[in-house]
Amino acid sequence: MLRFGIDLGGTKTEGAILDPDGSVVFRERIATDSSTYEAVLAGIESVYRRMRGHARDAAHTLGVGTPGAVSPRTHLLKNANTTCLNGMPLAQDLRRRLGRDLTIMNDANCFALAEALHGAGHGRRVVFGVIMGTGCGGGVVIDGRVHAGLQSIAGEWGHTSIDPNGPACYCGSRGCVETYISGSGLEQRYADAADQRLATGAIVAGWRAGEPRCTAAMGDFFSHFGRAVANLIAVLDPDVIVLGGGLSNVDELYTRGAAEVARCVFSDSLETPIVRNALGDSAGVIGAALVGN
Ligand SMILES: [Zn+2]
Known about the structure:
The protein has 9 helices and 12 strands. The chain is of the alpha/beta class. It is 37% helix and 21% strand. The strands form 3 sheets. Strands 3-2-1-4-7 form a 5-stranded mixed β-sheet, with helices on both faces. It binds zinc ion. Zinc ion is lined by residues 159, 169, 171, 173, 176, 178. Zinc ion (ZN) binds at residues 159, 169, 171, 173, 176, 178.
């Protein structure tokens, strides 16, 4: 049986087909049009149709990774930073459009599962996967299975507040982890202080070159990273933390960032490995393929 996975991201929608050995035999990417809910559905459907064409309609499972989660109570999508999805019956609409059953799973959970089974968390019992991209998500995998939680919010550390007087978040709270250590959060905090906008890469480059405003922004970034990761370690104490998303490519997260975690953690020492993902930006779509039915 082939495994089809589709990862609905903020900027791209990606499909991948895994063969029975788990190897990726087909990949396809299109830009995500999230201008309307209908456009998101159409994008997923077009990727799925091309995957089916490639596989010549062979039998397959299908999993779809999305921001947010399907509420076990209402069966509607909630908590998505692609806000046009919230309150929508995404699973039912996709089943109708694609003419088949499928599994919907939070994208960070997909990332964590793929890294736990085939990536940087392989061989560890309790894996916490972190995505520091446009937003800031997380997922918990225990003994090779996603722990989604009673309300399907396990691992959503990006919306734990570390300052009730901090910046407003789209979720309605203030000072969420996401408003400090996601790519969009870092850029907004820099813009608030410097009165001009810079992209994440330029802020990191400016900091490495000693530019004072970038240095201040990155100092805050590492300090918030330390506090946020120490908080999650105090709750879950995972065997490994795997970082993904664009910001996981900042090498200093694994040195200075880890040192900030050690400074904040409720322990006599920090033993938790904080490591870079092994599957790159394929982890989300591979995880989606792994959870499909
Ligand atoms: Zn929030």
